[in-house]
Amino acid sequence: MDEVSLQQQVLKAIESRAPLRISAGKTKAFMGQDATGTLVDLGSHCGIIEYDPRELVLTARSGTRLSEIEKALADAGQMLAFEPPYFGSDATLGGTISAGLSGPRRPYSGSARDFVLGCKVLNGRGEIASFGGQVMKNVAGYDVSRLLAGSHGTLGILLEISLKVLPRPASSITVSRECSQEDAISIMSEFLSRPYPVDGACHDGERAHLRISGSSQAVKEARKKIPGDILPDADQFWHDLREQKLPFFHRPGTLYRIAVKPASRPLHLNGHWLLDWGGAQRWLYSEEDVATIRHQTALSGGHVTAFRNGRNSTPLPPPLSALHQRLKASFDPEDIFNRGHIFATL
Amino acid sequence: MNHLISELKSLLPAESVLYDREDLRPFECDGLSVYRQLPMVVVLPDTIEEVQKVVRLCREHNVPVVARGAGTGLSGGALPLENGVLLSLAKFKRIIDIDVENAMATVEPGVRNLAISEAASRFGLYYAPDPSSQIACTIGGNVAENSGGVHCLKYGLTVHNILMLKVVTMEGELLTIGGQTLDTPGYDLLALMTGSEGLLGIIVEVTVKLLPKPERAQVVLAAFDDVARAGEAVGAIIAAGIIPAGLEMMDRLAIQAAEDFAHAGYPRDAEAILLCELDGTHAEVSEYIMEVRKILTDNGATEVRTAKDEAERQLFWKGRKSAFPAVGRISPDYYCMDGTIPRSQLPRVLRQISDWSAEYGLPVANVFHAGDGNLHPLILFDGNKPGELERTEEFGSRILDLCVEVGGTITGEHGVGVEKIDQMCTQFKSAELAQFHAIKAAFDPSGLLNPGKAIPTLHRCAEFGAMHVHHGRLPHAELERF
User: Fold this and answer.
1) Which parts of chain B have pLDDT scores under 50?
2) How many residue pairs bridge chain A and chain B with CB atoms within 8 Å of each other?
3) Subunit contact A330:B181, Cβ cutoff 8 A
4) DSSP label of A265
5) Secondary structure of residue B322 in the 3-state scheme
6) Which of helix, strand or coil describes residue B369?
7) Total structural domains in chain A?
């Protein structure tokens, strides 16, 4: 769908104050609250607009398949360093940035929003506006393009996105060792302050896995200093972790995502745990009630979301919540985009 | 004494409220001293509660507030207002916590950038963004400007290296934005607040991410007899899959000024030099040095030198980091531009700057963060010669328009402030400017925080546009002209 027809659809919705529900690959439909309204399908608003490996910048339309983008990057020896989860082969760039999801490399390379350089957006006044740009350093105006990352389509329709990309590491291995969750937390925390090229660290309930990536010399050198066994099929393992395909994720029931400081001690909650992001993102299947989970998470200074098979998240404190509503209204005064998708009040 | 000042004196200790002309003088400008203005009053609160009290009082009296850190900014962002309160955060100098296990530090906004790395050093950690003014500039100001530095290509800007802010709004509310976790529920207000130039809130506490100090850093210096060839070499290093920790370029005039000042051992006869710093583990750095040396030679470098020891590495950087004061020595005044361009456009932009330099009769020294495309042309002029500042500003504004035209931006790291407010009209259309104003109103409905900076009014752009018509297109055509 082209920009002009999208703009017409939005102007019509504004006139009748009828909400719009934005979608493309439908791979992240399980996230957030159900939005109501007429479907805006961005799946056909696609294509890579510009990519020059020497500039480390890629610009594409929001409906471009993530797989197409990653293929183009891989052909030039580059990658999206935030290692985005797909959650389905139809995942698009727009959905990935709107959901703001990042994979195992997140604590070491940065998040989806960290790599956003600029975007073109269709706002709730029916206007097309561009923020940021195609350059690494840009402080003209407020950083709207990074604000839109992770806003779940509630502020506008992303039309185009420019991202910083990085070279793929020349070499990568994963070192594993059996240990308790508590020991894994200490090990992973230690690597936050040691100059080793670690770019992934998790504990799957039984073993800690450290991914080491960089120049072939750097990887060889680090291997000598980090005890453990080499994990075979490591690429598949990190892929399955990112896509929630490991056996751990085959359980029924609500999957909670708990974000805490990486070195936080194990939380006092019964259930099955998997720690990613060096301990900063923890997945939990638990029979405990939501209030207990929320309370224990708060004691660790963290926040919790029912990521799959549940629709709860940590509410915002009142002054911040009011600011969110004013900000939402500043982009979308008639509240037409993904109404109620993040919080009931947004 | 006016009513507001006496009320401020009832809220704060006597020495924290300055209103004598002589006491106001040190606050009349920031690092861009061509703009000067005495504020009505300066306050130096010592606690968050005091900041809240001052702000609430100003809100009640409808008096604007300008927050200030060390005053090293280069765009007039902390320029006082004649009828306003200048709120200095100079007393917020405490390092609250260094959390080694989680590799983060919580500090007050008046802590100097370098002081964070110094305090973290004994744990093998440091704070990555390193603007050239890092000895003096404060973290609060860094957040307000989204400061960069020579290591941004690999380690990012301020926005990539902070986790949490405590912010006082113009209503006097204390908000926590972001968190000690890697994300927080709701919108990414941390990104929005970073680089907002004091228009959205007053930063009263900052939690930064710390990184492990690399085992080793090494720098390679390469000389070129052609600026475009040096630019090619930069692209070739990146295409080879190497992300240098720092990648800096200087042209002939900048090289000569820096060499005379710092005696860094730069080749004075080169048209351009590149400084390429590589960091990481010992073996990794050795491997990359070999590769980079080969790429530089293959791309026509006339000389390639690796610093023979740490002292020489420091010396190579000293030359680069002192480029601005070095240029200051060879000219009565200089005007520093801060555009960013796609790297591939470098030859075209430098050629155009050189042509304009001849046209205006004003020499230009170019210092370039080559890795990330951030160009600092320094225009040399003499402010005592009538009309020369105006011609310099006109020249500068043409350079910034050119940066936008080739797909870049008017400011890479120095901010808009008062200096580049008219160029904002070149870079943005009415829809974007209106969105910026709507965001401002969501945070600061009274519009009292640092008014008149960073974002031009649509009317200002309409007037500016009437004077600067580009390619026959009248910007902001929907607005009436006057």
Assistant:
1) 469-472, 479-482
2) 267
3) no
4) P
5) coil
6) strand
7) 2
